[in-house]
Amino acid sequence: MIQTKAALLSLFATLVFSHANYETLNKNPKYHSYKDQNSPDFSLLEQPSLEDMWGPFWAYQGIQSFAHLPVQNCLTIDKNNKEIERFDIALIGVPFDTATSFRPGTRFGPQAIRAASQRQDKWRGFNFRAGVNPLDDWANIIDCGDIPVTPMDNTLALKQMQLAYKQLLSLPGNTSSVPKYMSLGGDHSILLPILQGLYEVYGEITVIHFDSHLDTWAPDKYPSFWSSNTSEFTHGSMLWLAHKHGLIAPENNLHVGLRTRISGNGWDDFREDDEVGFKRILADAILDDNGLQKIAANILETLPKNKPVYISVDIDVLDPSAAPGTGTIEAGGFTTRELIHMIRKMKGLNIVGADVVEVSPSYDQSDITTTAASQIAYELMTLMVEAGPVTEKQLVKHNAAKIESGEDLRLTALDRIIQEERDYQLKMLFN
Ligand SMILES: [Mn+2]
After folding, report:
1. Could you tell me the distance, in angstroms and rounded to a whole number, from the CA of residue 125 to the centre of ligand 1?
2. What spacing in Å lies between the alpha carbon of 7 and ligand 1's midpoint?
3. Per-domain residue ranges for the chain?
């Protein structure tokens, strides 16, 4: 009897507490907009503002930005203007696809990912896997629109992307010293100018690269007699170039999800990949006992804890059933759920930027790929929010020993390639 009484009391206490809890603790009026217009109290309510009445809209309405975030053309922001509205994290589209070796079409990626992100917004943005709403936390997040990259000339396109990231990374953050960018591709070659921009701000970056392919191929691994400087810049060689120009850490970069066939009759590609400073986690590793957990542990063991880390997600890391809308699909990849799990496990790393690339909507079915890409972008931004604001101490300009003069030779080398190529092209065109 005593036991029953105690049980009843505890049940009663739980009911009272949970009711009180819902009413007083969890009910954030910010997220409860509905007013009972039949209630007698309704006429006593304050006159609603036009914003109250017409500001909120349904997920499929409004002008499409990523997750209905505010839009600003960040490339036209004058950083010296004190009046500008500052931000900490921003989406930036890079609709460039003329460095692809197989099926093109990723120039339509950023707009399609935005369209697929419409059911994400501040209002219903709480990431329960992380315990944070990345769209409504300390970071001011916006959509910066697209870099207007030319589809006519890759030398010029590379130059435009270099200058664009330089400009974007020179803007002051709101809470952060520098904003972080979540780039939407575009083909994977866009990673090179991104890493160049980040190198100037942070120094060498460690890259974690989710991809079914290596993308550390030397340009001469493509079978062609014909070559030029710009022909070296492709979506399969950008990591080789980044290594050659000293933009990435010399070791402990990591591929996750590899499963493509490799060149020739042996392990050459893997040996060359070693030289570029990468370790490899193959897609099949997930078949081991506790494979997913082991992959996540391996990622955390390999990546540095206190150094800048960049996450690049080629959507072809997913199985074609989970991401058919990409240029170079490979059978036998991860599910979206598995990839999200791996990303979630990277909490605590110093993520300074990320991308989702190679989304090619014309090969997509029922928005499968674009929906996966928009969710991955959201998970990556969650990581950025969890990492906290960028502090001055993280910036390379505060480490004078690393860069002695204002100009870094490793960056000017790439600029020189571009200039030489430009001169060469002009000569070919007009002589
Ligand atoms: Mn790739």
Report:
1. 29
2. 59
3. 2-54, 66-394
